[in-house]
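QA checklist item 7 of 12: single-chain prediction sanity check.
[x] sequence parsed
[x] length recorded as 219
[x] structure emitted
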Amino acid sequence: MGLTDNLFPAWLLLVTAVMFAGILVRAVRQTDWQWLRSEQRLQHCLFGAAVVLGFLWQLRAGLSPGLSIHIFGMTAVTLMLGWRLAVFSGLLASVIVVITGREPASLFAVNGLITVMVPALVTHAIMRWERRRNFRNFFAYIFFCGFFGAGASVLAAGMTMVVLLWLTGVYDWYHLQHDYVRYLPLFLLPEGFVNGVVVTGLMVFHPELLTTLDERRYR
């Protein structure tokens, strides 16, 4: 989901821009740039994922004026690259979306926060939880991190968008609940399916591409 028209007041755009910048700075500081430079395969995954997401996000449906929905795909990218590199890949995809005119440049920060950063961080949190539980069956990684993680990330992003629209008075709660919130569970199923299938395929055929996967735990 993303904003296609500037619905928010200037003060909220400033607040979201500060939050966006804070998360981005943390990602930049915590990224192992030497590892990224030395791993050509990782570079291919980062830029390849950005291109795929950029074109995937062209396919969207409009809901209320200025608000659209689309498959995120950020869960699979986060499990491939880790949340920091996933943020960079997602933001590169957002640049493609802006260049193609799907979203305005003025909303880059708020759309980046909701579409890229929130799903990446939620997926990362669920992945950390799965690690702490120390499951020994690889289906736990596929189900919790892939299928469930994708659904949870979309739910978090969707509710973040709803709360922002409600707090700023862009839409009243009845309108949001009637035209958006009650349909949100329908968005979770395709998101979980798409990401879960991608993660399953990678785990079976190319587990080395999933940098968050510790294969030793499932032997």
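[x] summary fact logged: The chain has one domain: 2-218.
[ ] second reviewer sign-off
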